[in-house]
Amino acid sequence: MRRRIRKLAEEKPDLQRVLPVLDLPFSTAFALSILISPAIYEQAPRLIQALVATVTLIPTVAVLRRLLLRASYPILNALIILYFVGILRVLTASLPVLGRFIFLGQVLGATVFVIWVLRSWHLPAEAAQTHGLIWRTIRTVAKIGLVILPVAFLANIFGYVNLGNLLGIIFLRSVYLAAVFYTVIRIIEGLIIVALHVRPLGSSRVISLHRPMLQRRACRLLEFLAFLFWLNLLLNFFGLRNPLIASIGAALNANLAIGSFNITLGGILAFLITVWASFLISKFLRFVLEEDVYHHFHLARGIPYAISTMLHYAILLLGFFVALGALGIDLTKLTILAGAFSVGIGFGLQNVINNFVSGLILLFERPIKVGDVIEVGGNVGDVTRIGIRASVIRTADGSEVIVPNGSLISSQVTNWTFSDRKRAVEVSVNVAGGADPQRVVELLKSTAAAHPGVAREPLPHVYVTNFSAGALTFQLRAWIDRYEDLAQLRSDLSLALNNALAREKIAIA
Fold first, then answer.
1. Which end of the chain, N or C, is less packed with Cβ atoms under 10 Å?
2. DSSP characters for 403-425?
3. Residue 432's domain is classified under what CATH number?
């Protein structure tokens, strides 16, 4: 992979950030092994755990030296020293007094180093954009340590040995785990970047269009999972994970009686999570369809929107029933609920159901599609959305009109762009008497045909609509391919016709 990506990075600069990770394949493999080592060595003795952690620390530091700036090397060196001092303290656990002095020296050294970080360590100005986040994170951790470490030192001095050890070990172990997980996140992020640039994922249209966004989302997900993993290891180290899980399980399984209906807090939480997940799944599938799948099929305008909308409704309906099952409701009893719902429809929900069914008719029959220009109730505008209950029409002045779907089905609607987006433009011209009518007709036709915005088919036509002793009225009708250009083209044609008549010295009445 390193050899292949090095060549590819010459064409795609985004891959340059991956090269430092791939330059150390063995260290990368060792660092990634910490993801599975806790599950394998969960009940290992402390000495074995210390050895595994030590073996992991070396490649982690090697990778971090490639990822971080040279100005961060003192922090890495200090972490290594403090770590091995902690190992020495563990090995001298049989000598409590010596172990206590080693702990005091470790905490005191860490406190002095934290003060140095806050007072003297600064990020180079040229690296503020690329390394600003990690710099701010290090300073935040240093500020927290400046509070915890002195408290741990004083607690140990005044005889509260267990409290002091607890505070100091919590902070130092948290920092070690954070460094390791940061390394793992950067490694996995690099592998994700590589996967998004090469086949088969790299050839996908949706990935090529949204690669930066997908990389950011993947990084955020990795950071969240790393935080959960870090918290799990920390709680397990202090023996708090199992009691905490038992307490949370007892709280979630507690029964809440509502009449004859029993429900649990866990069921409510499962219901909410299932509904939320159905929305996420629907959003993801529609995103893939709209950005990639529809692109490969020549579908008529409006069909992709109809497919996406129906898929959205189907996923939400399925998710709702799954959520009811997760809530603990017997789905066989929903017939009673359906009967009560039908009665409710008969009394007060006729309009709601009518609009919903009308929306389905609009999606299937497609007399009106998103993007059409329609006129209904005296309002003319673009259809921007066909919803469950109503559709949204955006007028030329920027206002948005909410029209119930039932009105679009039951009332007369003018769709200016039903079959195509062509539209006739009509311009009236009054010419003074005495002009040659045939010459005026040819001049108006040629002027309209020469305009770049006028469609070639059908050709412009000119009609005499009125005549009198002092004037003739001509009506020019031309066609345009884009309805949106109607007002601008009418203005341009009027100016062009006026200039053409003036050049030919034909007076306008």
1. N
2. EEHHHHHHS--EETTSS-S-EEE
3. 3.30.70.100
